[in-house]
Specification:
iron; alpha+beta; 22 helices; 3-stranded antiparallel β-sheet; binds protoporphyrin IX containing FE
């Protein structure tokens, strides 16, 4: 960056720092005045967290929120104050209170405003009615029938992926399979939500062409866009002022995060516009999203096109690296647990006898595979933080304590999924527990719970079953390290997984 480029930032920096400092001083004075009637004053937690949201924002920025919150629960017990207005409750009885269904459901908190890029989507809208309407429109693309009609697209992407991995496995050295699972997941999602694969597997790269609002076309790294945008939102969502203030801070983390947000909308705009202009028909999720809107209003209005772009961006973000990160972590767990590996391979060989690339119908009903996936999601915790909810007007009673209107609450997923009172031996990776006891899904928070739970769960399972089965059946995988390094933005993600991949000898 040249000195000239820096000049505007110096001014922005000064304004940003002054505003941040003033707002912090103001917040501390305000809290000091409020202290005597602070309804959360009895809730234990770190000293700084009681006074400023910057403490929690900092933990998120460092990519370690779930570990810090887990340690706090070990120190203080099930109820911990992690920000002036935020209470984390790590207890199984809190799950239904915070993420319950129906009229008891708590709404998403203003934290989710940080996830709005251009227009609120099904994921980021906080308003209950607006959400219900969006969910009705989007969910049609995710019904079992709709998903069955798109399995040929999934299989086609998987076959292409396998051809590439076959080719790469002949090259010397190891590869980062996380990157390849990312390429595949992005290709699948863009095939379903944008109407064509983005071409990452073919190009062995995540560089994509995007269209800016002014019509200009440029290139971006799609995976970085998603990572940076999601991490930024997870930080600035902590306090309603942070999103605006962060635009004045010349830290590359904030600058890139804000640019990524726009970059993703640009990416979706190019794809959706192309599809609408072509007027072509194709059996995919984008088609369902278009059809449901056209059925309701005759033709798409410009407002509806913007909304369509917002929803497709959400699907790309919500459904791509979440799935590839989970696949990576589960395969890592399997490879580092030889007993589970051997047993799973036996079940897979029985179900897919001719060593072909499996189809959905081959792998959908293998109980041990599903148990491995569930245990992997529990142990690794793709969603590791507690998802933010707001206490409604009459307040909420949780674990015998009353929390007043406006308090933010969350149930930390990683801590619940490693709670000894629920799992007995949580630090053991033991898929059998899911076959022994049927009701454990109640405590798996990976896909959220209640009215805002994941809409793409079935699609994620199909992808996980197919890719995990294919990788284990078709290749010998040798890990470079038994340690999986991870970080956390909104989701918990591996940084890489280096593996030597060799095609298995085919039995005669
Ligand atoms: C293993 C993979 C996945 C994980 C771990 C995951 C996790 C989650 C979680 C935790 C939520 C709730 C978020 C909250 O309350 O803040 C969520 C919501 C959502 N997910 Fe997923 N997800 C996955 C795959 C997918 C896929 C493949 C799609 C679709 C393309 C998808 C689409 C959505 C949507 C649309 C929502 C918003 C639902 C609503 O608010 O009504 N997800 N996901």
């Amino acid at each position: 960056m040249s000195t000239i480029d820096l000049l505007p930032n110096v001014t922005s920096f000064s304004i940003g720092v002054i505003l941040m400092a003033l707002s912090s001083v103001f917040a501390v004075i305000h809290r000091a005045l409020e202290r005597y009637r602070d309804p959360l004053r009895e809730v234990p937690g770190p000293f700084l967290a009681r006074w400023t949201s910057l403490w929690l924002a900092y933990q998120v920025r460092m990519g370690r929120r779930y570990l810090v919150v887990d340690a706090l629960h070990k120190k203080y017990g099930p109820i911990v104050r992690i920000a002036p207005n935020h209470v984390s409750v790590a207890h199984k009885d809190a799950i239904n209170v915070v993420y319950g269904q129906g009229s008891r459901a708590l709404d998403k908190s203003p934290y989710y405003h940080a996830f709005v890029s251009d227009k609120a989507s099904i994921f980021s809208t906080v308003d209950r009615q607006e959400h219900a309407q969006k969910r009705r429109l989007v969910s049609q693309g995710f019904s079992y029938k709709s998903l069955m009609s798109v399995t040929p697209l999934l299989h086609a992407n998987l076959y292409h992926f396998v051809e590439k991995i076959d080719e790469i496995s002949q090259r010397p050295g190891s590869i980062d399979v996380l990157q390849w699972f990312n390429f595949l997941a992005f290709d699948i999602l863009s095939d379903l939500a944008f109407g064509e694969p983005i071409g990452m597997v073919t190009n062995e790269s995540d560089v994509v062409t995007v269209m800016c609002a002014d019509g200009k076309v440029k290139e971006e790294n799609a995976i970085s866009l998603v990572d940076e945008r999601e991490h930024l939102a997870a930080v600035v969502g902590i306090h309603p002022w942070f999103k605006t203030l962060s635009k004045f801070i010349p830290d590359p983390f904030f600058i890139r995060g804000h640019k990524s947000s726009t970059g993703l909308v640009d990416l979706a705009r190019r794809r959706v516009t192309k599809r609408l202009e072509s007027g072509s028909y194709r059996e995919d999720i984008l088609n369902k999203l278009i059809e449901t809107r056209v059925e309701e209003s005759g033709a798409l209005t410009p407002e509806q096109v913007t909304e369509l772009i917002a929803e497709t961006v959400t699907l790309l973000i919500a459904g791509s690296d979440t799935t590839s990160n989970s696949i990576t972590a589960i395969i890592h767990l399997v490879l580092t647990h030889p007993r589970v590996h051997e047993k799973l391979l036996q079940h897979l060989r029985d179900a897919v006898p001719d060593s072909q690339v499996p189809k959905h119908e081959d792998v959908k009903d293998i109980p041990y595979l599903t148990a491995v996936i569930e245990e992997g999601l529990r142990y690794y915790a793709t969603t590791a933080i507690g998802l933010h909810r707001s206490v409604p007007r009459d307040g909420v009673l949780c674990l015998g304590k009353f929390f007043p209107e406006g308090t933010e609450m969350s149930v930390p997923a990683y801590t619940i999924q490693h709670d000894r009172t629920i799992w007995g031996d949580p630090e053991n990776f033991r898929p059998e527990r899911w076959l022994e006891e049927k009701d454990l899904g109640r405590y798996l928070l990976t896909f959220g719970k209640g009215p805002r739970q994941c809409l793409g769960r079935n699609l994620a399972y199909i992808e996980m079953q197919l890719v995990i089965a294919t990788m284990l059946l078709r290749y010998d995988l040798k890990l470079e390290s038994d340690n999986l390094e991870t970080t956390e933005g909104f989701m918990h993600k591996p940084l890489r997984m280096i593996v030597e991949v060799k095609r298995k000898e085919l039995a005669c």
